[in-house]
Every structure is written in structure tokens, then in C-alpha cells.
## 1
Amino acid sequence: MTALVLSMPDRRRVLALSIPFLAVIGSMAIGLLLIAASGKSIPDAIEAFLDGAFGTAFALGASINRAVALSLIGLGFILAARANLTNVGGEGQIAVGGIAATAIALWPPVAGLPLGLAVILPLLAGTLAGAVWGGIAGVMKVRFGTNEVISTLLLGFVALLMVYWCVQSTALLRQPQTSSSTLPESLPIPDSTKLPGLTNDPGSPLHIGLILCLLLALAIAIVLQRSTFGLRLRAIGLNELAARRAGMPGSILLVVALGIAGAFGGLAGAIMLQGEQFYLKAGFSSGYGFDGLVVGLLSRGSTIGVLAGALFFGFLRSGGISMEIMAGVPSALTVVIQGLIVIAIAGSVILVEKLEGGRR
Amino acid sequence: MEETLAIFIASTLRLAMPLMLAASGELVSERAGVLNLSLEGMMLTAAFFGALGSWATGNPYLGVGCAVGAALCVAAVQAWLSVNLRANQLVIGIGFNILALGATTLLYRIIFGGLSREEIPGLPKLSVPGLSDLPFRRRRLRCRSSAASSRIAPCP
Amino acid sequence: MNHFDRRLFLTGTAGAAGLVMLGGLAVPARAAGPLTVGVLIPGSKSDKGWMESGFDGLQAAEKKLGAKITVKYIENVKFGDMEQVLVALAGKNDLVIGVGGQTQASVFKVAPRFPKVKFAIIGGNADPKKPDNVSGYDVRQAEIGFVAGAAAAMLSKNGAVSYVGGLEIPAIKNTGKEFGNGARYVNPKIKYIENYTGDFDDVAKAKEATLAAIAQGADVHYHILNLGLRGMEQAAREKGTHVIGSYTDRCGTDPLYVAYSVTGVGFQVEYAIEQAAAGTWKPEFKPFGLAMGPKSSDMVICKGTPEQKAKLEEIKKDLLSGKIKVLDA
């Protein structure tokens, strides 16, 4: 592989490198034109974007935290994708992860546990719940041949409604109703179950989720490239029949792959809840599952790609928020720019492949 | 009881109409081996341009024409990207959904002023002879854009 | 797939993000002079309901106070982004307003970090955890819901009225209950049909819910809906029944509407801004409702007879004096 890199003419390499870059710049330029057309000042918009994404310690931390959630979804996605499985249920896996983490964090004995167990147990509960949720889709696939795109997506809707149910019912996770206007939310989780911050600066929301995410990214990279498990996933993904004939436990591999993808989603949900939100409420998943899916899809199977994409989308959302507040850019326009960027990056892939010398 | 049942069946048919139309379209693309994830985006786009056409011309049939034309344009660009340029169909679908959501909201705010209470001319009700005389009489033909867009609902 | 192309592609994407990063880190400075106001609107500012009413109040305040204030706002904010939005608003404004009870948890979390900034929650409830620089304004929708129920019962020819609510959250459910109570207060034999669609913005479901109520005889419909109201309008127009509007008095603009309740979401936004501009803002929990006058909460029957008006006045007076008791919301 390394030899290949070096043998490639440098000029081509630089060109190939610059294509997604140009796609992003291009769609942002179109966005700026639209902003100008809507009568807002371009310099104001750019300044607001940069300030919102990188201007304060809080914005920086919030963007990175968002990127952590997106990365986890993306990492789970590429692992399942190696076995030719498409997990589009990230949003639902976040939801069940959040429910499980809240339930365990609010369970009275947990808050007093020593050695960080108060933090770790809810995280594990979230991960496990996500794994089950992904695993169900896996079992449905191997037992009944259900397409996992459909099953993960629909399980996602079920999970979102389960959050709604959990916070509507005091028998489940809703806070005790002290008056008829008690909001349908859970109680806040105890301080001891919240993720510890990374810095001493109280103005920065950055938490240890980042480190966890980087370690898991490394683990995924190693598993995918160096382990037998990774190789088997790939074999199953390339030709399931051949892999089974070669004696691989095909069904188990498929269920495990979707289970792991779900586990990453569940962990993302637990981290969102224990890291920043602290309350369970309907809609807490905020569409991060779908953004994470896009990150996973655009990464084309690479862990570095997932991290880069997640950072990019994390900062994009922060910048967009700030553009709306500071420069009066309509929120719909930010959405348009996001759509353009996704389409442009996806559409430019063929150019990258051509520059590699028509290897496909 | 019978009354409730009639309401239930009629609601089901009405709410199923847009789904049936969209699903039939998806069936065609599935047969051709293309996964069209941007149905939602296409319906939004069509709903918007259907309402716009209907509102501008005063004729709901021209509105339907606009809707179909707009969705065709979206589909053509999408086909070019995912078939000719071999871009990932899932990503392109998601991208178009995001784009359609943003673009229709933006255009609605620009064209209808954000605070419009304008009524859009809708399609007439269709009575099916025989069926209409049954106690479960309901209209069958629905403007495809009504339920798709919660921003403007063109069928009064 | 081979690894090489992916890496290239991705490094490119990372590079793009990096380049954007280079220009950052500008230091913001708070402008001296006019009162700066930042408003968080969780939904769409043109939703025909709660959010739009709040946005109207913001515009009214801007018109009234002119150069004395500068306003920034943001709409359509999801929970995952809410804290970041509030921090961004609080970092650059003197007064931050959250339009809706769903902003309360995030405001409570952010407010202690910005002790010099004033926060106001529209639709906030009396919560003992309220930080010292936050005020909560209670809309008291259920109270006016009772009056609307009374009005609906007076206007109904069939002796049946209906209510469609969006999410099943306390404020919305209590309003529905009190609407029914109000209707029965005027006509104990009235038939009352209530329904929740689970979504303030779902046009199709609101329409079906209304049609179902009409089929059971209802001819006057009240609601707490946003965009979904369009569905109710369509159903009523098709079947020749009538609607009571929920937020603003728009009598005379549409014959479909026979009455309007005034729910002062916008008025509370205006109130918070005016108090802060005048320097009289204080952190408090304040129930608005009828007690704060007709701009805060009111009920208007568009072509009401003197008797109907008198009856409504009487009910409002009894509500104010506590003779009639309603649920909080």
C-alpha cells in the first residue's frame, strides 16, 4: 500500500487530495452567494461563522463534543459497512442508549459507587442497550432476511417514541409530578454520574468523551485492518456465500457487526446525556444520529475520515448557529448550505477515483 | 360504532393516498436497482412548487403539473449524480432531503412572506358513482402535495 | 475498496476543516449603548401559533423601543444545540429570552454562568431551582381555555364542541381539560370531544382529528396547534363548522373564525424587553393570564351579542376573584 502511494505521481496526488476540499469550498462559496443574495453582509457572516465555531472556549468545546457523538455513530457505521451492512438506525440507538443511561444513573445505589463506577455503569448500560437495538436488526436479517436499512430505520422510530413514552409516564422515567405543570422530563442525573470535564476551565464543556472516542477510533482502526475479525467482516461483506463456504460463522458475524454498530450509537446517546444534557426529554437525540450517518457514509470506510468528517460537521453546526444569531442569516439557508456540502462531497468522489488512475 | 368505523376507514384512505403514490414511485426505482432515499425531499419540493403553481395560476391542475415537473428536475439531478457520477445513493438521497427542507422553507419565506394566510386553490372532490352513495362516502382523489408539506396545505 | 484513495480523500476533507479554522479566534467585545436582547425561538417563527406569537411580540418591542434596543434571534433550535445557543446569546446580550417551557432546563443550567445577564422564560413554571437572574412568566393557557370553552358552548348550535391539542404536555392537556370545564359551566349537557395529535405541526392529523369530532356533532373547535391549525381550518371549511383562534385577536379577517382567545406569548416577550429597557426588570416568577390585562389574556367573540359579552365578563371576573378555580399551565 505504501509503495503505491509513493509510485503515484505527486501532482495527481495533490489534485486528488484537493477535490473534497474544493467541493466544500465550492458549496460554501455558493452559500456565501446565497447569503449575499438574501441581503446580508458576507464579511459579517464569515466573522460570525468563525466566532461561533472557534471564537470561545465554550464554542470550541461544544463543537468537539458534538463531533464526539457524530464520530461514534460514524465508527459504528463503518464497522458494519465492512460486512456490507448499512446501519441507518443511529438516531434510535442514541435514543435507547440515553434511556438506559438515564435509568441507571437515576437508580439510587449507582450515584454513590466508588472508583468512577457511577459514571461507567450508565455508559455501559447505554452501550448495551444500543447493542441490543442493533442486534435485533441483525437477528432479523439472518433469521428472516429483513433488509437492515429498513429494520434499523424503523427500529429508530420505535426508539424515539419510547423516549417520549418514558418521559410521559411517572412509572417510567418522568420526574415526580409535583404540580399539574411538571414538564415531561426525567429528573436531572446526579453529579457523580456526569462525565468529568477535560479541563479545569468551568467555561468549557469539553469532557472525557473525547478521549474515549479517540481510543475507540484507534481500536476500530486496528480491528478493521489488523484483526481476523476485521478480515472476516470484509470477507462476509465481499461475498457472503464464499465466506460461509470457507467456514466462517456468517450469521453470528452479521449480528455481532450490527450489534457493535448499535453499541456505538448507544454509547453516543449515553455520552450526550451524561456529558451535556443531564435530563432525558423527548427529542434529545437532536438528529445527531442522521448527521453521524452522513459522516460514516462520506468517510468511505476510514476511521480518520470519520473523525475528520465529524469535526467538520460539528463545527459547521456551531458556525451555522452563530451565523443565524450574529449575522441574521436565515436558519433555512444554513440547512441549504449543509445539503449542498453533502451532495458536493459525495458527487466529487468519482473525480478522486479517476485521478487515482481509473483503478475501479 | 358504525359512524366511528366509517370515519376511521375514510381517514385511513385519505392519509394513505400520498404514501401509496410515493411508494409506487419508489417501487419503480427499486426495480431498477436504485435506492431513492430522497422521497421525502422530492415530496417537499413537489408540494412547494405545486402550491406555488396552483397559487400563481389559480388552476390546481397546472399546480400538479408544476409539482411533477419540479420533482422530475430533482430526480434528474439525483440520477446524474448517483448513476453517471456513481456517487453513493444513500448520501445523495440524504443530501437532497436536507437541501429540499432548507430550500422550500427559504423560498416559502421569501415568496409567501412567512406570515401568509393565503389559501391555495385545491383539486375538486371526486365522487365515484355507486361508491359515493354508500354511507362511507369520501373523496378518493387527493392532491398529492397536501399531506406532504406541512408548510402549505393546498387542498382546502 | 482500497485504503489509499480513501486516505487521500479524507485528508482533503480534514484539510478543508483546518483551513476554515485558521481565520478564527476573534475576540468579541460587548457594545455599550442600547440594550441588547437575544431571543431563542425553539420552533419556527412562522408557525401560526406559539412561536409566531412570540416573534410578533419581539417585533412589536423593536418598533416601540426603536434605537433603545438591538435584537438578535434564532429559531428552530434542537435540544442538543440549545445550551450552546444560550451561551452564544448570553455572551453577547444583556437580556436573553427563551420562548417556551422547553427552554427552561437549559436556561437554568446556563444562567448561573452569566450572573450579569438577565434571563426570561416565556411559559416557565414556578420552580424552586430557579437561579437568581432568571424570571419565569406563566402564560396561564388553561385559564383562558376555560373562557374559550364557555364561549364555544355559547356559539355551538349542535351542543357539541371539540379541542385538538398537539403534544400531550401538561400545559396543553390542562388547557383541554379546562376548555371542557368551561363549556360545561355554560351548558352542563354539552358534548365535549378532545384529541391530541402528538405534534403541533402535523396538518394531516389535525385535519383528521377535527373531521372525527365533526362527525360526532362538534361545530365549534378550539385548539393549541401551530402549523397543524391549517388542517383544522380545512376540515372546518369543508364541513361548514367554525374555529376559535388561540393566540391573537384577528376578528374580521376570516369568517371561519367566530372567536379568538388572546394568549399573550408576544406580550410577555414585549414585557420582558420593556422592563429591562426601563431598568425595572427583576427576577421573579410571574403568572400572567387575565390578571395582567386584555393584552396578556382575553377572549373575544367576533359578532358577540351583549348578553354573550356580559357572560364572558362575568366568568373572567369569577376567575380573577378565585370563585372559579382552574389548573395551572
## 2
Amino acid sequence: MSTLPAHHSSMTTYKYLYSVIAALICLVSACSKHTPTEYVFHLPPDFPPPPVPVDNPMTLEKVSLGRHLFYDTRLSANNTQSCSSCHLQAQAFSESLATGVGSTGEVLARNSLSLTNVAYNETFTWAHDSLTSIEAQILIPLFNEAPIEMGLTGNEEAILARLQKDATYQKLFAAAFPEQNKNITLDQTVKALASFIRSLTSFNSPFDRYAYYGEDDALTDSQLRGLGIFMSEKTECRHCHGGFNFSQSTNQHGLAITERPFHNTGLYNPEVPPANFDQGLYDISLREEDKGKFRAPTLRNLQYSAPYMHDGSLATLVEVIDFYAQGGQNLSSGPLKGDGRAHPQKSDLIKAFPLSEEEKQDLIHFLHALNDESFIENPLYSNPWKTQP
Amino acid sequence: MRKPYLIQLIRTLFVTSLLLATSACSKNTAQPITIYFSAAEKSSANPASFTLRQFKFYLHNVFLIDKQGKFIPARLNDSPPWQQSTGALIKLDQQGEQSNSQITVQPETSVSPDEIAGIQFTLGLDFSTNHQNPLTAVSPFNVGSMYWSWQLGYKFMRLDFSLEDRHFNFHLGSTGCQSASPMRPPTDHCERPNLSTIQLLDFNPTTQHIQLDLSALLKLIPADTPNTHCTGNYQDNPVCAGFVTQLGLSATTGQCIDQCQQQSFFNVNTASAPQ
């Protein structure tokens, strides 16, 4: 008999506990409507995640908002251009023009870079050693005035007002930035854009299947021979395009010792430099040794991102390989006439090498193995404004 | 019955306490030792203007040698980003945060700093560290510029410099590593490991440091030598072969000649820390 009351009382305790837990679950689920969901990067096993700024953690809601903004022409002053105008998914978020064209028709100096895995970039753009976050980089196309790209300068309020009016954005901004007030800000816009761009990871090429998923048959014999040529001392490709992202300018979570490599590849060395001649990193640093130096971009999705070099002056991979096999470029005519091979700042590791026709084909086949079809077809990266079929 | 049991218990307790005391002692008295490195860049032997671009190397397997000639294993402290117990990266090509001119080791048994009369370490990384999964490698093993491939592993030493407008690249590492492709690690040893044993006697880390003598290397380079890349086939080029020989290694076998005792690249400098 004596156990019964005790049992009874423990039953009440349980009932009480259950109701508390139920209430808590209700609370949490209610909260979760407003608490952003952590974004998990799509990476092969053991891959190091990219670094993420402390003040802009990755959430699904910000990525979704950023994706809408990325594809929205209302973000340019004259409603004609979005980020996606120059960064097309089918071309691994680059474009086929040699150099970009801004929203008002002004021609840019450089080729629109692929956004493949830019979350891992140590620095951004073709040559800028202190642009170290996507958030900082985005301000350039948004606000650039010489030349005008998106043309936000002076039109910030009008553009934010456009977004503010849209019911879709009201919901998306509220979900992405639940703790902030209802007025859409530029800071939120940039953080969301950066989050979407940071989510553009691509690690599902045949090379990745071979190297990181251990699938021995993912590469053909020709591609394997090409890999050997790529990694060889003869070509020295791996020196500037090494590591899991095929760029020495790669950062990752947990990397304490960072280097910011820029290289002069011997592309130009004009006898009489024309006005506004692009000197790469030198134009930022004004240091003699930085003349003609550019950042080695990733080689992933290379076939999709033609044309090549900072000015898009080489149209095909064959031209690029021929260029490196000659140890640079000697132009015998034109405004840039001069021997780039003899540039005093040319990288130590760019030197002419013999390459048979078969070796060249193997190398190209290997570079094609860096194509990630699932990246350019990934519906999560596509235009969200288009009605899904 | 009872007495032997007690004696045994007392014995056990005594031995245990003795062991405890010893281990406590060794913990208390074996102080970590810091060893400094520097590069002597100026060369009177070669008047051409010299520019150091990159100079980095890995080392592991450290021993301190006492005055009686006894080798005391000294474990590299786990102190990232520059060193883990499996290896340390020394970087002497610039000043400040992005360089490192020291290692800190924990001698396995107690040794008074005054008693240290020499040091020995292996230039490079052991086979398992050298061919570890590059994706999960932690600092200092995730430095891209020191990495070759899963097959070949790391550059053990990278020395890039210019003499006027001529460029020289010395990249030492294991070669002849057999695997299916550069993206597969070798299962067996490499044909030419190129691991140099550096032994310095008459060296005391509290009053002296280790200096890397670039001038001796520059003496090997004839004035008209064109751009030279020593990135694997060391025996094919006399300058590259000379570089490898200075590290005590054979350019043709990748093994120590005479236990690498003829190396002349690492020297003792009488200053306690790099100036």
C-alpha cells in the first residue's frame, strides 16, 4: 500500500514533466519559424569547409534570399542587369565575352571570373591582395563608377525601395534577418548575396570521383596520363594551380599560414605600354615586383568558363596550353607588341616545354575531367524567379 | 600466509610510489627546449644581386645529444600552426607573423640545458606524414606551396631565389614514389626518399642557434648559369646535384652518403638567437 501513493505521485511528476516538455517543444517549434537554419556545405567526405565570416554565418534563408537577389535585374540602377547577366550558370557562373559589359554599356577591363568555389578564395578579383571576403568584393560590381557596372552609386535608396515593395522580398528578408527591423538595408543585401555565392561549391567532377571518392574508373586512361602531365615537373601546372581547388590562392577553415600568390605568366611585355595598360597587382600595390601579376584562378569547370586569361584574350584551352608551352607570349605587332616571355617579373616556373600532340590531347582530356556537370545543372543554383517546369 | 602477502603489498606500494615519483620528476625537470634558425643570405662569393623569394623546410625526428654523446629523443610539441608532434615547418623568407624561425621540443628524459652538446634531426617528413590525406592535414601540413601531390608528398625544402634576373628553384622531396596516379598515395617506400640526417655537434641551444648557409650554395652556381629548376631530377643538373650533395645526400640514390655527415648547409652560429 505504501508504494501506491509514491507511485501515484511519480506519475503526476511524469505528467507534469510531459506537459513541460510538450510546452517546450511548442516553444522551440514556434521559435524555429523565426530562427534561421544553418546551411551545410555540399562537400566530399573529409573535405575542409570554406572559411565563413563571423558576422555573416551561413543560413538557408540567407542563401535563398541571395539567390533571388543574384538573379534580379532590379538590383541595377536601370533595371537591366543582375549578377547573373555576367555570371551565367551554364558557364559555371562566368560568361563567354572576353571582358564584361556593365549595365549602361561600358566595357570592363577584365574577364568575368567563374564563381566556382570562390568561398575558398584567399583573395578576390583577378588581382587585389587586400580583397579577402566575398562581402568586400561584391561592392565593386555594385558600386563601380569607372566603368559603371550595376550602377548603385547614388541610387541606393531607390533600389532598396524597389525591393521593399515586393512581397516576396518582405518575406525573404524577414526570414533571413529575423532580428532586424523591417527596413531592407544594403548590408543585408550584400550579406545575402555573399551567402548565395559562398554556397556555389563544385566538387563532383570525374576528377573528384577519382581523387576524393576513390572511384578508380572515373577517369579514362588518357585523362590519367593528362593528370600525370599536369603534375609533372615539365609543365609545372601544379605549382600555381595546385591543391584541391586547383588554385594556390586557396583558403580553408583551419588554415593558419596564408600566402597570397600572384603570378606574371609572361602574357604581355609591351615595348610601348598603351594608356590604361592593365598591370594587375601593381595597379593596387604600386610595387615594381607586382607588375603584370594576377591571381591563379581555379581550373575547375574550365571548359565552361572560356575565354581565358584576365582579359579573355585566349579563346580555347588549346591556345592556353600552347601559350604555356612557349613560356609566354611574344607579340610581333599590335598595341601590345613585345615579348612577354622576357618580362622581368615573369614567374620562375613559367618556362617553355616540349609537348607532343598526344600529350596535349591527354592534358586537355584531363582538364575536361574537371567539369562538374551537376554544378551547372544544379537546380539549387538556378534562377528562382523562373517558374519551374 | 598473512606475512608474505603483506610484504608483497608493501613491495608493490613501494615500487609504485617509486615509479610515480620518477615519472613526476621527469615531468618536472625536463624543460622544453627552443631551438632557433636563421638564414645567412649575404654572400661575398657571388656578387650578383641576391633576392630570396621563398625559403621553407620541414623537419622531424629530433634528438638532443648530451656531453657524454648520449642521444635524448626530443618530441616536437604540439603547437600549431608551425609544428605538430609529427613535424615542424621553418620559414625564413620574411619577417613577422608569416614566418617561423624556431622549434620547441620536449626531451624524453631530463637534461640540463648546460649538458646539451649537440642536436640531430631529419630534414623532411616521415613516410606516413608525407603521404597523409592532404584534405584532413592540419597546419603546418596544409600549406599549399609546400605540397606536391598525394603520390610524392611534400616539398621537404623549398628555396627559391634570384641572382639578378636569373631564377633558381630548389625543391627537395621524395621521388620515385610508385602509385597508380598522382592522386593515390604510395603503399611502399619511395625509391629516393631524400631524407637528410642533420647532425650538429658543439651546439648548445641556449647560447647558439642553427644557421643555414646560403653562401655555400651560391658558390656552387657558375656566373653564367641560366634559370635552374631543381624539382625532382636532381642528378641531371650539376647545380641541382651540388645542392643535394650539400645536404649530405646522393643525387643518384636519394640516400645519405656517409650518414649525411658531409652536409654543409646547416651550421652552428654562436649567437643565441637569430639577429
